[in-house]
Write a structure and sequence with these properties.
With about 210 residues, the protein is mainly alpha-helical. The chain contains 11 helices and 4 strands. The protein is globular. About 40% of the residues are buried.
């Protein structure tokens, strides 16, 4: 069975996002855009699976499924234009849609430099116009999980030096990850041969 529409059936043995969401992404050419060593659609589904496996809620998982559809500071291709945000919000809900919007528009350094410490509002830097992107602590935690899932899903293509740099970045936000995601971070560091004891770092920051 060939073609993007067969992707669900071909991987039926693995957890699958809702079919209508995959069909929406296929209709917006996510199965045609190259990403990492696969297609954008395959990367998005892989990210969704990691989040679902970590026990994240439906909104976070669906946000992960759409996390880079607007492009990012690294992945500059756009599957869905910003003027179609309302269509995405109708598809996955406005709460979920805001997360891929922030994911795509933010400077990632501003996320890792932020340190939620009880404040209700966190401001990230918009990569397009340097304006503020406001999120709350719950959204910060959800984005931390989506960022980690995005990284782990494509970690194999990174150089050892970049893997270590990214894992050290994630160590900063590890207290905002749930236990399953923290374990995935530790396992990824070990499998990548990174000389960093993630579990010790998490315990020290927690």
């Amino acid at each position: 069975m060939n073609g993007p529409a067969s992707l669900i059936e071909e991987q039926a043995s693995e957890p699958q996002p809702p079919r209508q969401l995959i069909e929406f992404l296929i209709a917006h050419d996510a199965s045609s855009l190259a990403h990492s060593d696969a297609t954008l659609l395959q990367h998005l589904i892989g990210t969704w699976r990691l989040l679902a496996g970590w026990g994240m809620d439906v909104a976070c998982c669906n946000a992960g499924l759409f996390h880079s559809v607007y492009g990012t500071e690294v992945f500059r291709q756009t599957a869905i234009a910003l003027d179609e945000r309302n269509a995405v919000a109708r598809t996955i809900g406005p709460e979920a849609e805001y997360l891929p919007y922030v994911f795509g528009m933010m400077e990632s350094a501003s996320f890792f430099d932020a340190w939620p410490d009880g404040q209700e509002r966190i401001e990230l830097r918009n990569r397009l116009d340097a304006s503020a992107l406001a999120i709350d602590t719950a959204q910060y935690a959800a984005l931390a999980h989506i960022l980690l899932a995005n990284f782990i899903e494509q970690m194999a293509i990174y150089s050892p030096a970049l893997r270590q740099a990214m894992i050290e970045r994630f160590l900063r936000v590890a207290p905002h990850l749930n236990a399953a995601a923290q374990e995935a971070l530790a396992t990824s560091a070990q499998s990548a041969g990174v000389g960093l004891d993630v579990r010790v770092g998490v315990a020290a920051l927690g």
